[in-house]
Structures are given as structure tokens and as C-alpha cells.
Amino acid sequence: MANDLPSEFDVIVIGTGLPESIIAAACSRSGQRVLHVDSRSYYGGNWASFSFSGLLSWIKEYEESTDTLNESPAWQERILESEEAIVLSRKDRTIQHIEVFCYASQDMCEDVEETGALKKNHASVTSVNYTEASDSACLPTEDESLSTLSFEIPAEQTTSSNPESAPEGNYAEATEEKENHCSDKTCVQATSENVPTAENTGEQPRENIITYSQIVKEGRRFNIDLVSKLLYSRGLLIDLLIKSNISRYAEFKNITRILSFREGRVEQVPCSRADVFNSKQLTMVEKRMLMKFLTFCMEYEEHPEEYKGFEEITFSEYLKTQKLTPNLQYFVLHSIAMTSEATSTTLDGLKATKNFLHCLGRYGNTPFLFPLYGQGELPQCFCRMCAVFGGIYCLRHSVQCLVVDKDSRKCKAIVDQFGQRIIANHFIVEDSYFSEDTCSNIQYRQISRAVLITDRSVLKTDSDQQISILTVPESEPGTFAVRVIELCSSTMTCMKGTYLVHMTCTSSKTAREDLEPVVQKLFAPYTKKEIENEEVDKPRLLWALYFNMRDSSNISRNSYNGLSSNVYVCSGPDCHLGNDNAVKQAEALFQQICPSEDFCPPPPNPEDIVLDGDSLQPEALESDSMLHTNSETHKESPYLRSPVEPSE
Amino acid sequence: LIGDTGVGKSSIVCRFVQDHFDHNISPTIGASFMTKTVPCGNELHKFLIWDTAGQERFHSLAPMYYRGSAAAVIVYDITKQDSFHTLKKWVKELKEHGPENIVMAIAGNKCDLSDIREVPLKDAKEYAESIGAIVVETSAKNAINIEELFQGISRQIPPLDPHENGNSGTIKVGKQTTQASRRCC
């Protein structure tokens, strides 16, 4: 397929994560000939988003992760005497400790298949038991967490894989592998029969039972992010999207609520002026205090006397010295500044608070935006820009090695999976592509992630279409605060009637150990018992995935062994909420490659470059000022503008 | 607008939007999408046509490309059996990544070269019927059936229903104001 790949480029980019994609777009935009490859079959690397079946395949891939790549033609033959090779890794080692739990009833009578899916994505229920056996030894809290996990499961535990034999109405059965009860090889499966699987799930009232097969069937409605981030509405990424006009490839939604979790309750945090005044949780006095403090934070730099002497202490200590009630201190610390109680200094906190306030109001009532269809759209937008300016794209294309000239120590070419040698001047390589040898000196941090599908919001309101961010503070020293982002179906990331919840924190243990306590605080497993009791106040878990992702950010380039000066390293996603790190990284590397060039300037009008014809119709000239909109978004006749639609 | 490299996707857009044909059109560079408004009944349909920007060449089209498309034109070259073969792959891909109710149209381009035809119209018709797609043979060069192709799509696009979904309040980030329209890739 790739036989006709040109053999010479200016820049070769390996990996399609966000920083790599931004660099590719910037280089291509500046006239460099760019080859952009990814060994995977999808865009984004660890920044990708998946449909439900796509995510199951992704899980399976790591589960089966072996070195069973097809034997490629030997690269050794392609290397000259005067050259040596930096062999790239053939296996991705950035994801660990994958664990999947299914709580929704699994209707196994049907051969469930996602509508329109291809056979390869066929997601059978049996593919849901995975964990890495290797980490079982080091899980001291295993028993405890397991038993708490399954506490709602009815006593009549039958290990039944044949739903026909299950008693009617027995919705939830825990099918645990018995002898593995204390190991990590667990999967709490709830099987069921006679669950009404109505065809038209979209129309179902929320009280209806959501089964696993429905999730699979509606799997295309899901766009599940591997990294959970938001865009600060005045952050570097938004600025870059606007500057480069790449923003027209994407659409966003404003986060609608900032939540806090305090004393076991989820509450909405007032953050804008209007919110503060409308808040029912705050007293008049508190409102005034909060407004005064936030106003100060907006321009804290101009009032150094206010925080002088407090620079050395933590922000939480500093807040105690201010005229703020504990309630307000909590809001500011955890929900507005979103800083760590134990480690953030006063200045960190003030800076974060100011940044938050600064971003408020640009696009709505909170400072954050979320891209429709998930975070995984963003690398693709940049890739499209790169392609529009001639960048060549090759997924499923792996690179065997970088070829280094012995004399000049410069990298001069790559040898790809087909043994083809492709020369270039600059090589941008994402961290995960390097072999263990190259990274042997590096101690990576890890990110703990959980992806949950739930049946309702953590904080119910009139609208079921809320997008919320919640920070759950660290529970004990040595652990980290957990960031929770809850997405509703109108973000185009989950099916109607469900919510997609992302949890993220810096790892101290495995993802499940880090995050399960928070999951248990906020959610209850989905069981029949609770459906009967109408008294449930916690949202119910339908499905959960835990995994650890390598955090390769902020690693000094010198830590990598033996890289040539024209090989540039991009990191994978970091643990922060925003995307500033990726943009900074991309811009810095771009400046090294093209020192005097502008970084992602707006593209010229299409009519200047598309055609030299003379018969341009006015309509065609509009292209540049057009912003495409989702056809499903605006269901009105095409010549009406910005109609007010009834919100759900 | 999807299909194999070199089947004439850009030429079709060019003919449709600008009524122009360039013999030496180079592989698409620099164009991301073009627009044209077509009357259909008492509605105006604005076509926002996304070109693939060459990402199809090594079968690496970003799924983002399909988002929110109301219709897809899948193009093959009637003089190349291979391109008809890949068309089926595109249809599969579209079914997997595209919106569910997408209108599909198959265009057998270069019908001015029917003396070196490799794909019989009958095959295309049978296939199109099996997937419920519109099918026409077109020639961007001689302006045959290009208008008809897009009019056919226009007729198939279901009337707009403002109550159907709650996806209101999406934000376009940028300098310009939003404009409502429907896409076609």
C-alpha cells in the first residue's frame, strides 16, 4: 500500500499525539515537506478517543500485547558502514494495569453487535475480563477493595455463564472467579435475562434499565478519551486554534458546572459573579467575602502587600489568614485554584485562581471548553491542517530505526516497516516510540485513569445535559487529588441516558487502587436491588475501566540515551487539566526546526491557492469565513442563522 | 467526498462549485473545503464540501472528517476496477465512523472515457442498490451529471427537524460568527 511513499522529506514526525500533530501542522504550514506516521491504526496515540467497541479493541490490544509483529524486512541491510541505528520500540509500554468491570446486566442471549460495526470490532462480552496478572503481588488493599466493590451484590451468587438457566428477575449476579477472589483477576459481571432491550434506546426514559448490550449496540455514540482534559478558554491551545484558524474544524461545549465534593456531598461551586449572587448555599456575608477575595485575585500582582510574608506557606494556610469561611476556603482551594492542599504555595494558588478567573466569561459561565466528540478530535484537526498543506499521512506505519551518520552524529533517515529508507532533516519522535535502551535512565511518573459509564449525573438538576468538573481532594498525605470530569450525551461522547465520567490523578499505586475509593464515594454499582429501592441517591455504575498511563512530560531531553541533535522528543499527555504543556512543547520544538518562521499563522484565503481560474463565484470565496457546523446541531433551514433552540 | 487517490474528487468539487475543469490539477493541496448553495424545492441547501486533503492516499483519513456530515459522495474511476474495489472499503469505513443517517451517493467519475471502461455501470448500480445509495456516472471534465449528483443528494437529505436533538449551544471558537449549514464530505 505504501509502496509509493516518497523517499525524501524535510521533517518526519513519528506519533500523532497532540504535540506531534501541532508540530506537523506548523512545519507543513511553513512549507516543510512533512511525513507524519503512526504505528497504530488510529490518530492521537494516547490522546485518542474511542467508540465503545474501539475502546474494547484497544484494551484487547494491550491485553494481548506481545511482540508478535510481523517479521519486517531486516533494517540492518539498509544501513551503511558509516552509519549506525537507533532501534525504535516495537511495543508500546505506556499503558499498564488495565482492569475492566461491567455492572450493567449482560444480556447474553443475543449476539450483540454494534450497529454498523465491522466484524473486527465485534465486542463479545467475554472480552471484558482483563487485568495484568503481574501486579497481583503488590496489591495490599486488594481484598478490602474487592469486597467493598461487590458489597451490593445479592447473596445468591451463582457462577452462571448461561443466562437461560438464571432465575427470572435475577438481574445481578456476580460471576467472580472463585479462587481468584483475592487476586486481581476479577471481573464483577452482572448477567441477566429478560431485560427489556427496547429498540429505540434514545427515547427511553432514564429510569429504564441500561444493559451492557445496549451500550455495545450504541457503542458508536461513545467517544471515550484516553486522556481527560479541558481547554482553558484563554489557554494557549484555544489561542493557537484561533490564530491558525484550525478552530473551524472543531466545535466545543462550555463546561456548565464546577462542583465540589465536601463531607460526602456534591455541591455546585459558584464561580462567576452571577453565580455568587444567585447561590443559595452562601450567606450574604460569604458572598461579599468571596467577591472581595476573587476581585483581589484578579489583580493580585498589583497588591503585593496583601500576600507579602505569605509566600513561603501553602495556599491553604494563606486562605486561612484571609477573611473567608471554611466553606469558601474549600471552594477556592479545590474548585477554583484546583491546587494541592499540601504542596501549593500562596503564589501558585493566586496564579491559578487568577488564571481561572481570567478565563471566565469568554465563552460562558465557566472557564473551560470541551471539544465535541472528545479530546481526540484535537490532534486530528492539526493533522488535517498539516495534510491540507501537503503533509503526508500514514497510519499503521511503523518505523524500525533511525539511521545516524557516524561522523556527523546526525540522524539522516528512517527505515520503515517495509524496509524502505526515507531521508529527512528533522525527526520528531514521541516518547513511547523509543526503546527501553534509549529510555533506560528515565524514571517515568504515571497517571491513574478511570473511565466510568454511569446512569445519571453526580448532581441532579433540571437539565440532564450538564458537563461538570469536580475535584476530590487528596484523602491522605502521599496521595493526590482526583479530577473528575462528567460528560453528558450532548458532548457526543456517550449514548443518551448515560454519562461518561473520567477520573484522573497522579499515580501513587495502580489506577484502581488510586481511584476506586473515589468511585465508591460518588457511585454505586448497578444492581437490581437498587433499582427496586427508589431511594438511590448515588448514580449507578454501568461499566468501569481503570488503567495507568505513562506520564512522559517534563523529562529532560538529555535523559534519553544517544539521541542526535536533530531528533526531537515529544512527550505523551501530562496529568494537568489544560493543554498548555503540549502547545509550549510544540512551539519550542518548532522554533528549533524553523527558527525564523511564524508558528501556525492563519492560512491564506483558499481562493489564492486552490485555483488560478478566473471564474470564481462569490459563493466559493466564502470558504474561508465559513465555519462548518454540525448538521445535527442546527436543525433548521440552512438560511436561518443562529436560531434559539429549545434545550433538552 | 471520499474515494481513491486520483479518481477526481477535487475535479468534481471544482466543476460543481466553480464550473471549471483543470487538466493538470495536482493532488489536493491547500483546499480544506468549498461551499455552494443549491435550491431544492423551497429550501436552499448549502453544500459545504470537505475534501480529503490527501489523507486518503495511505488510507489514513481522520474520523474527524466524517463528523456531522449529512451526505457522502464516494467516488470511483470507471476506468479503474481497483478504485471500485476500494470504494467498498470506503463504504465500510463510512458505516463505521460516519453518522448513521448519512446519505450516500456513488459517483463513477471519468465517464467521458467510457471506451476504456473497466467497471460496468450495472455492477455499480447493483452495489449501490445493496447499500441504498444514489448512483450516477459523472464526468467532471465534460460537466456530465455533476449538478444532478448534488441535486440527488439534496433531495435525499431529510427535512430538518429542530426538535430532534438537544445538541444546542455548541460553541465555535474563532474570529468569525457562526453560520448554520450542513456538511457534505
Automatic annotation (TrEMBL), chain A:
Q: Where is this region: Disordered?
A: 155-184, 601-648
The main location class comes to: cytoplasm
Q: Which Gene3D superfamilies does the UniProt record give?
A: FAD/NAD(P)-binding domain, Guanine Nucleotide Dissociation Inhibitor, domain 1, Guanine Nucleotide Dissociation Inhibitor, domain 2
Any one cellular-component term (Gene Ontology):
cytosol
Subcellular location per UniProt equals:
Cytoplasm, Cytosol
For bias type Polar residues, the affected ranges are: 155-164
Report if keyword Cytoplasm is assigned: yes
Which InterPro entries does the UniProt record give?
FAD/NAD-bd_sf, GDP_dissociation_inhibitor, Rab_escort, RAE1_2_domI_C
Q: Which GO terms describe its molecular function?
A: GDP-dissociation inhibitor activity; GTPase activator activity
Protein function: Substrate-binding subunit (component A) of the Rab geranylgeranyltransferase (GGTase) complex. Binds unprenylated Rab proteins and presents the substrate peptide to the catalytic component B. The component A is thought to be regenerated by transferring its prenylated Rab back to the donor membrane.
User: Under which name does UniProt file this protein?
Assistant: Rab proteins geranylgeranyltransferase component A
Q: Which organism is it from?
A: Chrysochloris asiatica (Cape golden mole)
What gene makes this protein? CHM
Automatic annotation (TrEMBL), chain B:
Which GO molecular function annotations are given, in alphabetical order?
GTP binding; GTPase activity
User: Where does it sit, as one GO cellular component term?
Assistant: early endosome
> Composition bias, kind Polar residues: at what positions?
165-185
Which compartments is it annotated to reside in? Cytoplasmic vesicle, Phagosome membrane; Early endosome
Q: Which UniProt keywords apply?
A: Cytoplasmic vesicle, Endosome, GTP-binding, Lipoprotein, Membrane, Nucleotide-binding, Prenylation
The UniProt annotation puts the region (Disordered) at 158-185
Q: Which InterPro entries match?
A: P-loop_NTPase (IPR027417), Small_GTP-bd (IPR005225), Small_GTPase (IPR001806)
Which SMART domains does the record cross-reference, listed alphabetically? RAB (SM00175), RAN (SM00176), RAS (SM00173), RHO (SM00174)
Q: What is its main location?
A: membrane
Q: Which PROSITE patterns match?
A: RAB, RAS
Membrane topology per the record? Lipid-anchor
The family annotation for this protein states: Belongs to the small GTPase superfamily. Rab family.
Q: What is this protein called?
A: Ras-related protein Rab-31
Species of provenance:
Chrysochloris asiatica
